[in-house]
Amino acid sequence: MLKKIPLLVLCAVISFVLISGAQAGKTHHVLAVQHQTFLPYELSLKGFRQGIALSDMADKIKIETFNAESDISALDLFIASLKDRKDIDLIFSIGTHSTRRVIKEIKTIPIVFTDLGAPETSGIITDWDGSGANYTGVETRNYVEIGIHLLHELMAFQSLGMIYLKGSPSHEGAVKRVTELSQEAGFEFVAEGFSLRDENNRKHPVDLIRKNIRSSLEKVAPGVDVFYVQISNTFDQHFDLFFDCFKNYSLPSAGEPIYIRKGLVVGIGRDKEKFGFQCAEYALKILNGADPGKLPMDVGKDFSISLNIEAATVVGYNPSIDILGAADQIIREIDTTGQ
After folding, report:
1. Domain count, the chain
2. For the chain, what percent of residues have pLDDT higher than 70?
3. Strand-pair category, 329-331 with 61-67
4. How far apart are CA 18 and CA 78, in angstroms?
5. Full-model pTM
6. What gap in Å lies between CA 164 and CA 232, rounded to an integer?
7. Residue 256 in contact with residue 267, Cβ under 8 Å?
8. Domain that residue 310 falls in
């Protein structure tokens, strides 16, 4: 004969079953935020989507996207509006502008970020082992130095040139770190900067920006063995000026892989698609109960090396066996349609 189950125990069992069933069938709402359209951001978002799609939670996660299209005021208004939304379970923040704002304004929604232009000087990462707050991310500590150090081993250059955007934490931080690296590694480093804005913080017209790029290139290119191009949407939009300069001075170039199809010789940098995939892995852990504040941030380990044979031919550079062997991708054409 079966014993009677106490009513209180029975109610507890029923409640547990109902709550578990509700959790199992819950759809999670993830919001991806970026401040502009930029190829690295698109690659990170692509990798994130792929990571979610390949997970066993794929049918239970809805991804919403917001792109401010370079309108920082619109970005600020949108992020402020998130405080009143109760439907978002996690924010995927792409880029420094978006990430700075969401971690400042949003304290109750978990945040996963990537694509910081200068992880060390962004003001976002103060402890690589964990934020102790509601956010974490996938980044690489000292990634500029890692890339240039590897480049120095592969190309054995005596001098390296770079132009940079004044006022950009990522660009100015990189110049400082490469200056230190050049002293340690024993190569000459030549850098020239210019600003995108006037004294009233108004952005310069395109013609003046292009003039400043040309002028800065001309001050650096004639006296160096290799030119390094930092990541920048402005540089991407006006890469034709860089490529013309490299042709004029028969100067091999290196830098972020996003420029490789536009005529850069060696692309060396973070694999943004894989970083996005790693962000998806973090998002899944958090949605399953992990504390974002305890997840380490120095976890972006995948670097990619690409080589454009056609660009090398144009500037008269003969890639060494070491570079050919190290390349993850070899390109044999230059796409000038976007220049």
Report:
1. 2
2. 92
3. unpaired
4. 36
5. 0.80
6. 9
7. yes
8. 143-270+303-331
Distance (Å, whole) CA 303 – CA 149: 13
Q: Are residues 71 and 149 in the same domain?
A: no
How many whole angstroms separate alpha carbon 37 and alpha carbon 336? Answer: 19
* Residues 227, 128 share a domain: no
Residue 329 near residue 304 (C-beta atoms within 8 A): yes
| CATH value at residue 70 | 3.40.50.2300
3-state secondary structure of 118: coil
Dist. CA 117–CA 131, nearest whole Å = 18
Residue 185 tokens, joined: 């590694």
Tens of pLDDT, residues 99-157: 999 999 999 999 999 998 778 777 899 999 999 999 999 998 888 888 899 999 999 99
The reply to whether 83 and 170 lie within a common domain is no
Q: Is 4 exposed, middle or buried (0-12, 13-18, 19+ CB in 10 A)?
A: exposed
Structure token digits, residue 276: 């996005």
CA-to-CA separations, 205 to 38, 197, 209, 213, 226, in angstroms, rounded: 20, 9, 6, 13, 29
| Dist. CA 331–CA 76, nearest whole Å | 40
As a whole number of Å, the end-to-end CA separation of the chain is: 84
Is the pLDDT score of 252 beyond 60?
A: yes
Residue 138, CA atoms < 13 Å, CB-side half-sphere: 27
Closest CA to 26 of 2, 1, 57, 72: 57
For residues 248 and 223, membership in a common domain is answered with yes
The amino acid at 110? P
Q: Which residues pair with 65 in a beta bridge?
A: 32
Q: What is the DSSP letter of 54?
A: T
